[in-house]
Amino acid sequence: MPQIKLKKSLNFPLLLFYSTGTILGLGIYVILGKIIGEAGTLAPIAFLVASILAIFSGFSYSELSARIPKSGGVVNYVDEAFHKDWLSKISGWMLVVSAIISTATVLNGYVGYVHVFVEIAPWIIISIVTIVLSGVAIWGITQSAATITVITSIELLGIFLVILLAGDNLVHFPERAMEFVPSLDANVWKGIFMGAFLAFFTFIGFEDVVNVAEESKNPQKDMPRAIICSLLILTVLYIIISIIGILGLSPEELDSSTAPLADILAKKNPSYPYIISAIGLIAIINGVLVQIVMNARVLYGMARKNLAPKIFGKLNKRTRTPIWSTIFASGIILALALLFDLESLAKATNYILLIVFSLINLSLIIIKRKTPKVKGVKSYPMIVPILGLFFSTGLFVFQFYMTFFH
After folding, report:
1. Which of 19, 90, 375, 392 is the most exposed place for a label (fewest CB within 10 A)?
2. How far apart are CA 8 and CA 214, in angstroms?
3. Where along the chain do its domains lie?
4. How sure is the predictor about 1, in pLDDT bands with cuts at 50, 70 and 90?
5. Alpha-carbon distance 245 to 264, whole Å?
6. pTM reported for the whole predicted model
7. Cα gap 77→64, rounded to integer Å
8. What is the mean pLDDT of residues 181-198?
9. What is the separation of C-alpha 313 from the centre of its chain, rounded to a whole number of angstroms?
10. Handedness of CA 176, 30, 265, 119 (dihedral sign)
11. Burial of residue 365, with CB atoms counted within 10 A of its CB: 0-12 exposed, 13-18 middle, 19 or more buried
12. Is the pLDDT of residue 215 over 60?
């Protein structure tokens, strides 16, 4: 009997929407207020710092995904660099755990936007959303990617609506411009980096797209373009949105908000929050769906390398998707979302992912030393993974020190 293989059905537009959708759905709709709470009026600088930190790892992921276009992503990269099963297993499980925690984070944010319309017990909202989306993920990757493409268009519309409806806040920018310029004071930069640590959460997700490389029609060409383009697009949008928010509400008001984009628009018109909240609900669903799909693919790739239980490596004959790994990931996501709050989950995600990113950059350094160039694959200068390693490790150490020793 021929082995069932993952279906190659993803082209560049689908990959770009996939990457943009998971990044956008995971962050800005739920955690914007907390970032501004940490960095104050310097939140746009915090977003820029977080973007710089993320983009070097984004370049490393781009090259690795083109060199090694296999489902499971990080597991294959670490295995290729170190040839240590135990390290590959740890890195794979760290990615799975971080993705599960980040999805639980976003589900907590989902509740705030639902409550704009109706008061329903959080556990009911979280449970229904998780169960329905796990069913979509089981249905098939083409259907999932198509769903993600439609939803990403809607959530991008939401961001542009905020810019359109609250963009007149920008008329106050010239008179308040100096509020957005950081001084050289150490305490000011401490706030910026604390904000950047949380803002880093709004850029995670680009690492997810590499886990569908095996289902991409042309991963060597399309994967790098999708990752970098999505990061650049969202960096610009995040900075604009944060400036508009700060010019409309105080950092304290945004910090206490459970639906920050809705509260920004509430200042303009009482009906506007309902529009953005409806879009926010759809955006967050997109992020959750992508994460469930990604988790299943990582577990599937790990099982094929005997780094996870074999049941996670089984594909359904009809849907050609890893059903058991999808069910497992969804169950853990549901439990965490019900047990922990948004900010704690976001910080836990960042700690784990920064370790993974450090490992990924180190892997690329080792792989590039062994094989500097591969035909048909764009190779970035060695300084790229070196800086990616430095920034990822540096942010981890800074936040760890500020949390536990300051």
Report:
1. 375
2. 7
3. 12-340
4. very low
5. 6
6. 0.84
7. 7
8. 93
9. 24
10. negative
11. middle
12. yes
